Input
Amino acid sequence: MPLADVRYQTNAHRQVQRALSQGRMAHAYIFHGPDGVGKEMFACALAQLLLCDEPVDMSPAESSDVDIATDVDMHAIRQGCGKCQECVSVSHSAHPDIHLIYRQLIREHPDTTLRKRKALELGVDVVRHFIVEQAAFTPLRGQVKVFIVREADRMTIAAQNALLKTLEEPPGATHIILLTTDLTRLLPTTLSRCQVLPFDPLPDAFVRRTLSETQPNLPQDQADWYARMAGGSIGTAAKACSDHQYDMNNQLIDQLVTLNAQNSSRIALAWIDEAKKLSSRFRQRDPDISESEATRRGLLLLIKLTATWYSDILHLLAEDEAGLTNKHRHNELLQICRHSQIDHTIDAIHRCNLAEFHLQRNANTQLSIETLINDLARLSEGKPAISVA
Ligand SMILES: [Zn+2]
Output
């Protein structure tokens, strides 16, 4: 894919084009931003440009991205020609000088005992064998060698330490691009050796359009909902869609609108069951995560959807129709707003945040969920929550 086809990432484009025009490309970059906004596409397109025999300059005015087309600071977009042998190999994901690094590579490690390990983190053995040792060789075919590291924030401390020297003084024509969603998990020593390029969430309308293009049978109101829930990430929207989260969210809302002191225990059990179903889907996608971790992620998703529902009530109490996520449940939202109090709704969102905080710190899952649902039941009946805030 040509570089200019990565949409709505004007910041990243501007910084890279400036560095190219000044001949000051960094050897180590961190592409930081949400999942599914184009970081890996940008990294591959940049690698294509670095390997291309005859890069071309495109006028920004030719870009379909209006922010780029009207950017007065950008005079040209340099990108791979898309035609030479190098570009064609890159676009077929078959260029020997592009090394895609990910935690599951441990299963291809030459040491057979290491291959049996779970790939929960991006470990030191993967970093040493697949980056540090490979970087020492000259490029096989092109002028440069590019390492693109997925989920770099899952590098262990030992892995990051093993990479420091290569980041500091990359051998010859080596470029390393770390893709991250969480800068706080990178060591200061890693951060200081890389240039950080921020990637932004994508506009909802673009996420919706892309989802509709890839899933033409998806009803429009569902595509709208997935786009609003995805926080500007095509990746998140696509995963949510394949997990049928729209239907699950509707069931969850049915439970929330009828929630009371009598049915709260049954609803808590229903949540645990739903989280277990989600857990098996998550583990199909990522077999290395444990069942309890996958269940925890399922519960975190249910809590997020619940918080979104209460946030919708709050939006409507503030007469902000545009901010609604669950627009398709507008009538019920209106009904609930008639007997909802702002302070109780804010407390309900706070209780969701609190439960999320506890679950992320490995609190007892069943207890956390029962506490949350009891509190939400009391709040929905106009009584104060009883757990410690
Ligand atoms: Zn080319």
The beta strands are 28-32, 56-58, 77-79, 98-101, 145-149, 174-180, 195-198. Residues 52-54, 80-81, 83-84, 86-87 surround zinc ion (CB under 6 Å). The longest strand covers residues 174-180.
